[in-house]
Amino acid sequence: MIKSRLYQTLFELNATPVIAKRLRAFAESSASRAFIPSFAKTYQINVDEAAEPIEAYPSLHAFFTRHLKDGVRPIDANPNSVVSPCDGKLSIVADITDDSRFEVKGQSYTLAELLGSQQEARRYAGGTVCVLYLSPRDYHRVHVPLAGRVLSHYELGDRSAPVNDIGLTKTVRPLSRNYRRVTRFETAVGVYEHIMVGALNVNTIEWTLEGDRAGKGDEVGYFSFGSTVILCFEKGRVTIDPAKIGPVRLGEVIGTMQNG
């Protein structure tokens, strides 16, 4: 029970900035290595999927940000498919209103807040938003749902409210206030926004894509601690399957491209 509470504090954001920094330092230290087996057991992580044997990881953080073995997350090969960019819970698929407003867990957001630009937000009026929440048990590297080219890449926000179910319903609208990285991709069916939202009182997002192009399913970054991925698509460009709301895995089909 004590270890479970420690992991919840560490990876689900229940800490002050000072404590969070100390916990991160601990998670990155060799002293945390002894906690890896109990962490995996607590969150029922399939260690057989990890790229390395569990004893090979030098710290709890290294295990948390682990790579997976080749082939355990196949990327759907259908050229018209839209795939999940990560493991997680697809908690909402919503049509964006003409004023670019949408709701997550009863909290109202606008794309202007999320993207930091009213002009860019207008691009997505009538489009679709997908929000994927990653829990501590999930694989925490983030990929792309479509092949594309990076048009812009910037950072916003300086807060770090929780983005778990409690945070999404009880705190001050974390998706539009937390530290986040917004990447705009150009694809075969138009432009979309790929947003990684941080979730701890320290910078928790690392960008790994080299260059400005990514194939469908390619890795672009990872979270050091639990967080959220948001995808914003233009009107009529993709159709997201509402039956996919709930747990999804990287590479799994969540929708289809609309080619006119």
UniProtKB/TrEMBL annotation:
Tagged with keyword Lipid metabolism: yes
Active site: 87, 143, 227
EC number assigned by the record: 4.1.1.65
Record localization: Cell membrane
Post-translational modification: Is synthesized initially as an inactive proenzyme. Formation of the active enzyme involves a self-maturation process in which the active site pyruvoyl group is generated from an internal serine residue via an autocatalytic post-translational modification. Two non-identical subunits are generated from the proenzyme in this reaction, and the pyruvate is formed at the N-terminus of the alpha chain, which is derived from the carboxyl end of the proenzyme.
Topology within the bilayer: Peripheral membrane protein
Function per UniProt: Catalyzes the formation of phosphatidylethanolamine (PtdEtn) from phosphatidylserine (PtdSer).
UniProt protein name: Phosphatidylserine decarboxylase proenzyme
Organism of derivation: Exiguobacterium mexicanum
Gene: psd
